Amino acid sequence: MVETALPVAVSEPDRQRNPARGYAYLVVAAALFALNGTVSKVILASGMTAMRLTELRCAGAAVGLGLVLLVVAPSRLRVSRSELPLLAAYGVAGVALTQCFYFVAIARMPVSIALLLEYTAVLMVALWARFVAHQPVRNRVWAALALSLTGLALVAEVWTGGGLDGFGVAAALGAAVALAVYYLLGEHSANHRDPLSTTFWAFVFATLLWSVVQPWWDFPVEATTGSASLLGNLDDRTLPVWVLMTSMVVLGTIVPFVLVLSGLHHLPATRVGMVGMLEPVLAGVIAWVWLAEALGALQLIGAVVVLAGIVLAQTARADAPPA
Predict the structure, then answer these.
(1) What per-residue confidence (pLDDT) applies to 277?
(2) Total of domains in the chain
(3) Domain annotation covers residue 17
(4) What is the C-alpha separation between 21 and 159, in angstroms, rounded?
(5) Which residue segment(s) compose the domain that 288 sits in?
(6) 13-26: pLDDT as tens digits
(7) In which element (H, E) is residue 70 found?
(8) Considering all CA atoms of the chain, what is the largest pairwise distance in Å, rounded to the nearest integer?
């Protein structure tokens, strides 16, 4: 997951910007996030629960990003008492719940469809800005809404009575709501903190939540010691579960987050958001090649229509498009 988006970075002088490098960072990040969806699905199929996997990912990301901050900017680790409530809400609602709902969704439905549903968070933010915050929103938001609903109807094949798992769809939409909260809270935190330290503290509070809900002394260590089938077209091959989990934390979380942050130094936030739309596309391709998760022709058309709606929604807000 954007799997997750980030707050807008502080702009740098134009002479320090390198758009080509920024795009390269973002494409690699999108590919790693997309690959992580399939890796996570393999881990879930091995017997690990979505909540435990979320707990592990949050804790690993908090440790990894904390180490990065210690090396590059230890002063950013400081946090004032007044910032704690916002950071806690950001971590609990925006990080812990988004990832948990996403893991539940991909365990029950194709990765690409789960991501499409989750990315409708961008549309939710635009509608929130229009009807709740009363911010300027361009009329294209209505076209975005129409495209998204039409595309989702095609993806879900509603004329067949619904071929998707109902609980999986509910989880993916729950992830979308949580991600929308993440975007909105991120805009507020961006006024006070840099993106890297904000993301670090978000993962810290997400880890604290899961540590209370499901204490670490009850963690199913035995589930990490065996091997897991890679499923789909690689069903006859296995990897140790701990290797897959390490990949999820390092290559699927820490590295792409840092790459997105690096991309924000070279490109405007709106372009970063647009490139982020590669994630569901690449996730679908990877899941097709690896897991044999094939979508029908109408579902593929629907996916394209949904992405078009999300792109329109991404640019609908006149004052502060989400990153």
Answers:
(1) 81
(2) 1
(3) no
(4) 45
(5) 23-314
(6) 444 778 889 899 99
(7) helix 50-72
(8) 57
Establish if 15 belongs to a structural domain.
no
CB contact at 8 A, 62 and 207: yes
Interhelix angle 50-72/241-249, nearest 10 degrees: 50
Tell me the pLDDT tens digit for each residue of 115-172: 999 989 888 988 898 888 888 888 888 999 899 889 888 887 776 665 678 899 999 9
* 3-class secondary structure, 46: coil
Does any domain span residue 53?
Answer: yes
Q: How far apart are CA 274 and CA 260, in angstroms?
A: 12
- Which of these, 95, 123, 96, 187, lies nearest to 315 by C-alpha position? 123
Q: Enter the tokens of residue 281.
A: 């596309």
In a domain, 143, yes or no: yes
The pLDDT tens digits of the residues spanning 269-285 come to 667 777 878 888 899 99
How far is CA 83 from each of CA 80, 192, 193, 198, 273, rounded to the nearest angstrom?
Answer: 5, 8, 9, 10, 26
Run of H or E residues at 229: strand 227-229
pTM for the model stands at: 0.87
d(CA 99, CA 178): 9
134, 118, 144, 86 alpha-carbon torsion, rounded to 10°: 20
Alpha-carbon gap, residue 95 to 115, rounded angstroms: 15
Specify the residue for token string 């792409």: 256
- The pLDDT tens digits for 240-297 are 999 999 999 999 999 998 888 788 788 776 677 778 788 888 999 999 999 999 888 8
List the one residue out of 271, 241, 269, 259 whose CA is nearest residue 40: 241
